[in-house]
Amino acid sequence: MSWEPPSERVRELIREGARLVLNPPPAWLDELDAATLSGPQRSLIAEDPVLAAATRRANRSNLLAWASANVRRPGERVAANVGEVPVAVARDLVRRGLNESALDSYRAGQSEALRRWIQICLTLTADPAELSELLDISCRSISDFVDDTLAALTEVITREREELTQGTHAERRETVSLLMEGAPIPRSRAEQRLGYRLAGRHTAAVVWCDGPRADLAALDRAAELIGTCAGEPRPLSVLASAATRWVWVHGRPDPIRLREAAAARPQIRIAVGSTGEGLDGFRRGHLDALTVQRMLARLASPQQVATHDEVELVALLTSDLERADQFVHRVLGDLAGAPPELTESVRRYIAEQCNVTSAAKSLYIHRNTLLRRLAQADRLLPRPLTQDVVAVGAALEVLRWRGVAADLAV
């Protein structure tokens, strides 16, 4: 122990405060997540949807571990948190080529958690002696808990790096990294290491799992599914993290078939990049697939499958999410909160080059039904549709991928 056991009164105060931590208000968790994912040092984690989601889960795991221990044994040293969630995060960091410095987010989380804990302590007692003892013991406890957890996770990272560098996935990942960086690796050697032909047309994709438990078999099946939908018997699949696969196929997967097949695996998300020739196409397709993945995460989009062709404009429009939401509300007005069948009818009408007959056919509705919906939309729009077709079309595309209209900032 690095401190004397607290008095019985302070033990009860710690237990009382820890119970509050077990059920934190959502705003606390939001601030904790923002602290651990902000700043240039943590941008690589924040921009990766899988790593960002895992970091949020780790935040909650750490809070629960420390608070639960102090409810059971207040004031005693808390064992390092080496449960499933933080260990999975450490392993993913290695698979993404990051090192121990990426664990800096734990320090940021410690600072935010300590700030909140001090606020709790100030509500528990007004006695100066009790408060001094309470803060001294609990601040040491939090600091030692984080130190011990970081030391344990650093060991996990070291072991994982040793294991990963000996496997086939490591060789593939290294080769892909060299190709993406434009390193002068001979094509024949790269193809041998990848087991994949680099000539011809390529389409890249990113397959990942949003949930706390990644189904590795489902990820592998999804990678195979992309190949099937492209007529590619042997897609290239690279383990990017425990919950992510990078995939390349020759040709291009049929997006309709891909959506239908992916629907049977709701825990899987798929971002499809552009299609291009040779090494340039190999590189560009992957970068575009990552752009699609990040856009889906940024918008908290409910869409399971997205292609770069569909969302390139939306990705550009939503790079600044606050301004994108303002654009949607300014252009659509009350139409932004209209029922989905109305907004989708207008979107399809614009996509069909304002051809009522074609749009009604694609929507499987009567022509007169569509005309009534267009008239209703005109009453909700700030300006008539005929005077603002391009802007309304762009805003509706953002709305489609953004998800629930009520989530948009006013």
TrEMBL record:
Residues 190-295 form the CdaR GGDEF-like domain. Coiled coil: none annotated. Residues 342-397 form the PucR C-terminal helix-turn-helix domain. Gene3D superfamilies: PucR C-terminal helix-turn-helix domain (1.10.10.2840). It holds the Pfam family HTH_30. Belongs to the CdaR family. This is PucR family transcriptional regulator. It comes from Actinospica acidithermotolerans.
